């Protein structure tokens, strides 16, 4: 399949439900906390995999992303991921700021499955804030948010940390 930028944007923002929920608590794997879940578009035409990772040693180092699992071709590719700060340097100055990596249609169509478009972002500064931003961005149903992420929703209702 050939994708347009609108196709990728629509995959990110289409309404989704949680088909395989995340664990109640992130699991430890080495120095990383991990969780994941599977999603399906409400029209059942698209499937997604969400990954949530956070360093146990440096909590500002995290990554929350969504992979698209096309039904008509093998494999999957990451549509976008929200990252925290994980140390900047001359080669990667964006690492010293919260940032988003996005796939572009040109890259996906060329078989490049790395999300190379990077933009700094000010919408979040912590894992919790990034998770809330991400869950809203990818458009998960309110009932699934309330069921699987009540602490995130409660914090939003009252304008801050729960």
Structure commentary:
This protein is an alpha+beta fold. Helix content is 25%, strand content 31%. It is built from 5 helices and 8 strands, in the order αβββββββαβααα. Strands 1, 2, 3, 4, 5, 6, 7 and 8 form an 8-stranded antiparallel sheet that branches. A hairpin with a 6-residue loop joins β4 (47-55) and β5. The radius of gyration is 16 Å and the shape is globular. The mean pLDDT is 88.
| Topology as a string of helices (H) and strands (E) | HEEEEEEEHEHHH
The secondary structure category is alpha+beta
| Envelope shape | globular
State the assembly state of the protein chains.
single chain
Share of β-strand residues:
25-35%
What is the averaged pLDDT score? 88
* Parts with pLDDT < 50 across at least 5 consecutive residues: none
Radius of gyration: 16 Å
Count of DSSP strands: 8
Distance between the termini: 44 Å
| Structure annotation, total helices | 5
Query: Roughly how much helix do the residues carry, as a percent range?
Result: 10-25%
Major β-sheet annotation: 8 strands, antiparallel
Annotate the secondary structure layout.
Elements: H1 5-13, E1 16-20, E2 27-29, E3 32-41, E4 47-55, E5 62-69, E6 77-83, E7 99-102, H2 105-109, E8 117-120, H3 127-137, H4 142-148, H5 150-157
Antiparallel strand pairs: 1-3, 2-3, 3-4, 4-5, 5-6, 6-7, 7-8
Helix pairs in contact: 4-5
């Amino acid at each position: 399949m050939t994708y347009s930028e609108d196709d990728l944007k629509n995959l990110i923002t289409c309404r989704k439900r949680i088909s395989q929920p995340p664990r109640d608590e992130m699991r430890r794997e080495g120095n990383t906390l991990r969780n994941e879940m599977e999603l399906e578009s409400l029209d059942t035409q698209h499937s997604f995999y969400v990954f949530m990772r956070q360093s146990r040693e440096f909590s500002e180092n995290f990554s929350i992303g969504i992979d698209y699992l096309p039904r008509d071709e093998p494999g999957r590719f990451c549509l976008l991921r929200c990252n925290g700060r994980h140390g900047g340097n001359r080669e990667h100055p964006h690492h010293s700021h919260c940032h988003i990596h996005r796939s572009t249609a040109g890259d996906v169509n060329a078989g490049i499955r790395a999300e190379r478009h990077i933009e700094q972002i000010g919408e979040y500064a912590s894992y919790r804030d990034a998770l809330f931003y991400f869950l809203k961005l990818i458009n998960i149903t309110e009932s699934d948010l309330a069921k699987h992420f009540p602490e995130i929703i409660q914090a939003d209702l009252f304008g801050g940390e729960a």
